[in-house]
Write a structure and sequence with these properties.
This protein has 484 residues and is α/β, with parallel strands linked by helices. The chain is built from 20 helices and 15 strands. Helix 17 links the parallel strand 14 and strand 15. The longest helix is centred in the C-terminal third of the chain and has 22 residues. Bound molecules: uridine-5'-diphosphate. The site of uridine-5'-diphosphate (UDP) has 20 residues, from helix 1, helix 15 and helix 16.
Length: 484
């Protein structure tokens, strides 16, 4: 309840991609469990995609909320594109269209305010920078939600320092070894560890960078900034950012059954955009800590030549593997991407290749020994929370920085990095030898011990009295006096 006796009503609006919708849905559940009414906003297209993936004629968000006894409502607005527009193939066109959703949001907020309780705050993805102006027209708080680590937030927030030190605009491949040791709270990194848009310039980087600059201008005016991280993971970055911005870490945002054995009520995510294949029966037949789980998230594309090299690397490693190969991993047009005979021979004896899985369920299976990941932030934090060491293969955006932190700061995995430009490939020998290092020997044991320690910190953060749980409570308390 707000101070005037009315319940708080938060409009939660993630950027309409998988890696943003999932953690913000989980956040919505946390918020609603504290008595806040939540309206969760997605686009018509993503909403239809999630319903289809869940084979549900009913709204999956409402279904989820009903199962948990929470007041989470669901609303959709248009992203301005036809439902059959290929958002994967024309991703930057899709992003640009999302930038023009302000009128649709304003209309939605007016219509929601005709019901009780009226909206008392907007919690929007940091990338939806334009929602700040819409929200301020309603005279209510705007909270910016960042789905990447605090360290990456700090890099963008301190972009001016990259400029003043001559590291932006990027100096091309020759500058990739440059040392960056002046971002407050962030350990020393190289230019090659910066988010991709800051490493090398191309036309798409220009658009995304412009979006990020606008987003970080808006974020400076946010009433709070929330981040899917936790205090023991990034203490220095959090401390440094806190002197600049009211930042609260509220992660890892995962269903509580994965974090707290006492609380097994909240078990589902139900926000997958693709139908999930259930690999548990296959995993059950594999020895403890033996399987390499391979997935490159929901967005990135990988060349056919690279996919073939990965296939051969997995084969040569001799380890069992579970490989998520999205149907559009190369492009929407190319479905046949594995080497001849791979499915018939290698997969029969050693591996399983599927289009999508319930990732948390997979990572929590005792047979999983390592995660060969593109280092999307959700994947990294999920792997940490499930105690699985990683093989990092960053390809885009914050993945380079996440990989650097994962390998050199937290020491819970190894890095596989190809060159830039034409030499981007990683080769089968590098892959098979990195897998061997990850799952065996002293080095493998140290990474496993390190990730198990972080797993404990992740769990403590979310349990009663933990830092993220305290921050959630503090947020709700702080919002109460703002209810009109
Ligand atoms: N994911 C999943 N099943 C899969 C592959 C990925 O559920 O087969 C989920 C994963 O658990 C994570 C999200 O998709 O929550 C991907 O987010 P991430 O930040 O790792 O990468 P992105 O897709 O944004 O590149």
């Amino acid at each position: 309840m707000g101070d005037n006796g009315k319940p708080l009503h938060a409009l939660v609006f993630p950027y309409p991609t998988q890696g943003h919708v999932t953690p913000m849905m989980q956040f919505s559940k946390s918020l609603a469990s504290k008595g806040v009414v939540v309206t969760f906003v997605t686009t018509h297209h993503r909403h239809a995609q999630i319903a289809q993936a869940n084979s549900s004629s009913e709204d999956p968000v409402l279904l989820e909320a009903r199962n948990l006894g929470l007041d989470i409502r669901s609303a959709q607005i248009s992203d301005g594109l036809p439902l059959d527009f290929d958002r994967s193939a024309r991703f930057y066109d899709f992003m640009q269209s999302v930038d023009s959703m302000d009128e649709a949001l304003e209309e939605l907020m007016h219509s929601l305010n005709k019901t009780e309780p009226p909206i008392s705050c907007v919690i929007a993805d940091t990338l939806l920078f334009w929602s700040l102006d819409v929200t301020k027209r309603f005279g209510i708080p705007w909270i910016s939600f960042w789905t990447q680590p605090v360290g990456v937030y700090s890099i963008y927030h301190n972009f001016h320092l990259l400029r003043s030190h001559g590291h932006y605009p990027p100096r091309g491949t020759g500058g990739l070894d440059d040392c960056i040791d002046y971002i407050p709270g962030l350990p020393k990194i190289q230019s090659r560890d910066l988010p991709s848009f800051l490493q090398l310039q191309d036309t798409s980087s220009d658009y995304v960078l412009d979006l990020l600059m606008k987003s970080f201008q808006s974020a400076r005016r946010a009433d709070w900034v929330l981040c899917n991280s936790f205090s023991n993971l990034e203490p220095e970055s959090i401390k440094a950012m806190s002197t600049e911005t009211p930042i609260l870490t509220v992660g890892p945002l995962l269903p509580s059954s994965y974090l707290d054995s006492q609380n097994s009520r909240d078990i589902t995510v139900r926000t997958s955009f693709l139908a999930e294949y259930q690999p548990s029966t296959w995993l059950d037949t594999k020895p403890l800590d033996s399987v390499i789980y391979v997935s490159f998230g929901s967005l990135v594309h990988v060349s056919k030549a690279q996919i073939e090299e990965i296939a051969m690397g997995l084969k040569e490693s001799g380890q069992p593997f579970l490989w998520v190969l999205r149907p559009d991993i190369i492009s929407s047009e190319i479905s046949d991407c594995l080497p001849d005979g791979f499915m018939e021979e290698t997969c029969k004896s050693q591996g399983l290749v599927v289009p999508w899985v319930p990732q948390l369920q997979v990572l929590s299976h005792p047979s999983i020994g390592g995660f060969f990941t593109h280092c999307g932030w959700n994947s990294v934090i999920e792997s940490i929370a499930m105690g699985v060491p990683m093989l990092g293969f960053p390809l885009w955006s914050d993945q380079y920085t996440n990989c650097k932190l994962m390998v050199d700061e937290w020491k819970v995995g190894l890095r596989l990095i190809g060159g830039h430009g034409d030499n981007k490939m990683i080769h089968r020998e590098e892959i098979s030898s990195a897998i061997a290092r990850l799952v065996s020997g002293e080095e493998g044991k140290e990474m496993k011990n390190g990730v198990m320690a972080l797993r404990e910190s992740a769990r403590s953060a979310m349990n009663t009295g933990g830092s993220s749980e305290i921050n959630m409570e503090a947020l709700v308390e702080a919002l109460k006096p703002t209810v009109h």
